[in-house]
Amino acid sequence: MNDRVARIRGLIEGAPSAPGHDGGLLHRVCAAATHTLAASGTGVSVMTEVGARGVYAASDPLTERMEELQFVLGEGPCWDAFALRRPVLVPDIEEESPGRWPMYRPAAWEGGIRAVFSFPLQMGAVRLGVLDVFRKRTGSLRGDEFADALAFAEVTMTALLDRHEEAVMQGLGDSLDDAGEHRAELFQAQGMVMVQLGVSIGEAMVRMRAYAFAHGRRLDEVARDVVARRLDFGSDRP
C-alpha cells in the first residue's frame, strides 16, 4: 500500500457519518472525499458489465439526486467514465457542448452543480462502478486533489468487494469449518485464472472477486467452478 492510499484510508476511518445514514464504510468514503477534495458532494455508483446499476452511497441528498438522475436519463459523466475506462473531468459544466448529456447537463446546472469529476472504480480490466465528485463552483482539480481522487477510487473499489464478501458470508456458521479446504481451492483457482488471462496472481484474485460481486455469488463458489473447469475466465479473450 502506498503512502497516499494509506493516508486516504486513515481519512475514511476518521470521517463522520453522512447525514441521514448509519455511518457505513461507503458513506464515510463519500464524506471523507467531499472534505478532502473541497467538493460539494461525492457519490458512489455501481456499474458492472453484466447489468448491475445503481447508487450505493452519497454524501448528501443533492448528490444522491445527481447520481440517480444519471441512471434515470441514461447519460452523464459516470456513464462516460465507465465506458472509456478513464476519469472524465468537467471543470465547467456550462462550457460543455450542448450535445453532450443534453438532458443531464441542464438538470445538473439547475441543481447548482458547476463542475463534476468522475473516476472509474477499476483495477486492470475489472470495473465495478464510478466515484463522482461534484462542486458548486467551476475550476479544475489541483494535481494533489486529482491524485487523492484516484486513491479514493482505489480504496472504494476494495471496499465494494469487501462489503460484498462480508454480506454473503453472514450466517454461514458451521459451514466455515472446512475453511482450510476452501482456502486451498481458492489458491488453486487463483493460479488457474492467472494462467487463463496471463495476468499477475494479484489481478487474478481481483478478477475472481469482481466476478463474484457482479454475479452476486460467494468467492468460494466461483473458485470451485474454476477448479472444476465450469468457469474459464479466458474463454472471452479475443
Task: Characterize this entry briefly.
The chain has 238 residues and is α+β, with helices and mostly antiparallel strands. The protein is built from nine helices and five strands.
Structure, explained:
The protein is of the alpha+beta class and 238 residues long. The protein has 2 domains: 3-167, Beta-Lactamase (2-Layer Sandwich); 173-227, Arc Repressor Mutant, subunit A (Orthogonal Bundle), CATH 1.10.10. The protein is built from 9 helices and 5 strands; from the N terminus they run ααββααβαββαααα. The chain has a 5-stranded antiparallel beta sheet, sandwiched between helices. Helix 2 runs antiparallel to helix 6 (143-169), helix 7 packs across helix 9 and helix 8 crosses helix 9. The model is unreliable at 171-180 (pLDDT under 50).
Q: What is the CATH top level name of the largest domain? A: Alpha Beta
Shape: globular
How can the largest sheet be summarized? 5 strands, antiparallel
The number of domains? 2
Radius of gyration: 19 Å
Helical residue percent? 40-55%
Which class of secondary structure composition applies to the elements? Answer: alpha+beta
CATH superfamily of the largest domain: GAF domain
CATH fold call of the largest domain: Beta-Lactamase
